[in-house]
Amino acid sequence: MDQFIFLAAEESDLSDRACFCKRRPFDMRLLDYRNVPVLRFIRPLRCDRACCFCCLQARILAQELEVQAPKGTVIGSVRMDFSLIFPSFSILDSAENLVLKIKGPLCTLSFCCEDVVFEIFTANGATKLGHVIKIYTGFVQECCTDADNYSLVFPFDLDVKIKAVLLGALILIVSASSSLGELLSDRAVKFP
Questions:
Q1: What sign results for the dihedral spanned by CA atoms 139, 143, 147, 152?
Q2: pLDDT at position 148 over 70
Q3: For position 187, what pLDDT does the model report?
Q4: Amino acid 9: pLDDT
Q5: Given CB 3.0 to 4.6 Å as the disulfide criterion, which of 35, 92, 154, 189 pairs with 8?
Q6: Cα separation of 105 and 88, whole Å?
């Protein structure tokens, strides 16, 4: 059953889109079916070179996305961690305490003809709680379009604020991965 849940609308400068493409800073608002803002995702301009140790080791340079409630209250944030091989992200609460970890695969390219799975773990890494999957949609769609399909799975009883931050993690994973296209381009993104 298809049901409209949210519409994501990005605000970014034309110069940022032209100069930084998918690495650009943005302010994205998540609107409900009545066009009322429910969440805000803010991504500052940061280095995106995983091989550049200085960028990912320095907190002020690491890829990050902040999640806010409509009135500007910080709910939490997502931060890309330093890793030589596997992409890794930290899910932080509003006090910047580590709540969850996301660990990606060695190959994040969808032309490997299979789904790309990012596993969601507890903060200590002991228990798997869910996953973010970029669903492989076939050779033609993967090679000839910018259209991508994702699945985000997490426990039903997870704190609603952390669920919102996980949605932000999905957005950061898409925008930080060079192989995942220009999903966050000049157009609005619909979450059916």
A1: positive
A2: yes
A3: 39
A4: 83
A5: 189
A6: 9
Residue 121 confidence (pLDDT):
97
Domain boundaries, the chain: 6-191
Nearest to 149 by CA among 136, 140, 139: 136
33 or 10: which carries more pLDDT confidence? Answer: 33
The Cα 33–Cα 157 span in angstroms is 24
Q: What is the pLDDT of residue 189?
A: 44
Spatial contact of 176 and 80, defined as CB atoms under 8 Å apart: yes
Helix (H) or strand (E) holding 16: helix 14-20
How far apart are alpha carbons 44 and 60 in whole angstroms? Answer: 10
E strands, the chain, where?
6-11, 26-31, 37-43, 64-68, 74-80, 88-93, 98-103, 116-122, 128-135, 149-153, 189-191
Quote the Cα angle for 91-33-22, to 5°.
45
Residue bearing tokens 């993967």? 142
